[in-house]
Amino acid sequence: MSQRNTVMRSLHDIGLAAWFGGSLMGAVGLNGATRNAVKEPVLASRIASAGWAAWAPANAVAVAAHLVGGAGLLGANSARVAYQRGVGASTLAKTVLTGAALAATAYSRALGKKIEFASSPDPEDRGAAADHPVELEQAQRHLAMLQWAVPALTAGVLVLNALHGEQQRPEEQRQGMLRRAASPRAMAGGTRLAAVRRPAPSATGRC
């Protein structure tokens, strides 16, 4: 348990920080500033879309780094996930939130491409927007909600990451292992195992 995982932890934490911070800055800073400073809706959409398109490659790298780091940490702490009480539940919750954040991020990017094409002065881009399966008004409505969903979901992952840090304290690990060992299921399993391992009495050994 004292083994260091500095590289995996750095990938996990820096990737998550960039994912959360970029999505929050985009919602508050980029979208908010564009909406307030540019009164022409098409031009505002074009500027905001250009900003999000410039951020998309860096965000993809951040998400990939977070996932690689998370997989490495999960492998390194698999024993704690299995045997320390509470770690498995928090890991499952973190996995669900991460999956939801990934889905929201991917869908946001698809909606952003629709708006980017629709607001472009290039006729070919506008033709691509017409072929997009999502209508422009629907894309704008959904994106207005998802711009807050991504930072909210990644903030939840950050909170669970902080909980994992608390659960790694030596005292928390010791208490978690003891509570797991003292649970009724673990005690019942130990009783069954002892019964299986106990040798049967020999008939020739009786008086």
Q: How would you explain this protein's 3D organization?
A:
- This is DUF4149 domain-containing protein.
- Residues 168-207 are annotated as: Disordered.
- The chain has eight helices and no strands.
- The chain has helices at residues 6-37, 41-76, 78-83, 87-118, 123-131, 136-167, 170-181, 184-197.
- Helix content is 84%, strand content 0%.
- The chain has two domains: 6-168; 175-199, no CATH class.
- The N and C termini lie far apart (52 Å).
- The protein is elongated, with a radius of gyration of 26 Å.
- Helix 2 runs antiparallel to helix 4.
- By secondary structure, the protein is an all-alpha fold.
- Mean pLDDT is 81; it is low at 189-197 and 199-207.
